[in-house]
Design a protein that fits this description.
Layout lengths: L7 H11 L1 H4 L4 H16 L3 H4 L3 H14 L13 H6 L4 H11 L24 H4 L4 H13 L3 H12 L4 H8 L3 H24 L1
Helix pairs in contact: 1-3, 1-11, 3-5, 9-12, 10-11, 10-12, 11-12
Length: 201
């Protein structure tokens, strides 16, 4: 959920994917500090800011960026803002804003039993999903997902809960589509193994 603002490479890849020609005017040296300021703005948003629209927060970040003394040499023009505005289409951004509003900005991918954002089990085949009690099933799913790396957990949440396409998850996390698919397939196999193991006991 938070990977877009945790990994500069994913942020830069998203900007680059929007317009190759315009990207040539936005160097990596420009994008990385801008990324850091946006992340800082989100993490330290006031109660009023948390109620603002995505574009409001991005605008605030842009203003902070333009006022940063060490970055005065970087000329910001209207070409950059549309890139940032485009980020708003991703549920990842809305979830960050929601977490700020609820004052529960957690470790990315952290799963709690009572967390409504916890990964569900709807991606499993019906026979597998119906083989154990729903609560036990959720515990087994969370057990496997919690053992994944941070980036793997985020990919699982993006694709299985937010219903994000593999292509978008690939752009945000900075890994290939094949890697995204492999992570999801491997995780599904592990969950199925845990369920079968539980059934035998």
């Amino acid at each position: 959920q938070l990977v877009l603002f945790k990994y500069p490479d994913g942020f830069i890849a998203l900007l680059k994917s929007r317009d190759q020609r315009a990207w040539e005017r936005l160097s990596k040296d420009t994008a990385e500090p801008l990324f850091k300021i946006i992340r800082h703005t989100l993490r330290n948003a006031s109660h009023e800011t948390s109620k603002a629209t995505c574009c409001d927060i991005l605008q605030e970040a842009m203003m902070s960026f333009s006022k940063t003394e060490t970055l005065n040499r970087i000329r910001l023009d209207s070409r950059i803002y549309p890139y940032l505005k485009a980020i708003c289409v991703f549920k990842a951004f809305d979830r960050i804003r929601q977490n700020i509003a609820e004052e529960r900005y957690a470790v990315p991918g952290e799963l709690k039993e009572d967390d409504p954002q916890s990964v569900d089990n709807s991606f499993l085949a019906d026979p597998v999903r119906e083989s154990v009690d729903i609560k036990i099933m959720q515990e087994l799913v969370n057990k496997v997902v919690s053992a994944l790396s941070e980036r793997e957990r985020l990919i699982v949440k993006f694709c299985w809960q937010d219903k994000m396409s593999h292509a978008k998850a690939s752009i945000i996390t900075g890994v290939s589509r094949n890697t995204v698919s492999a992570i999801l397939k491997r995780t599904k196999v592990r969950i199925t193994e845990e369920i079968n193991k539980y059934d035998k006991n």
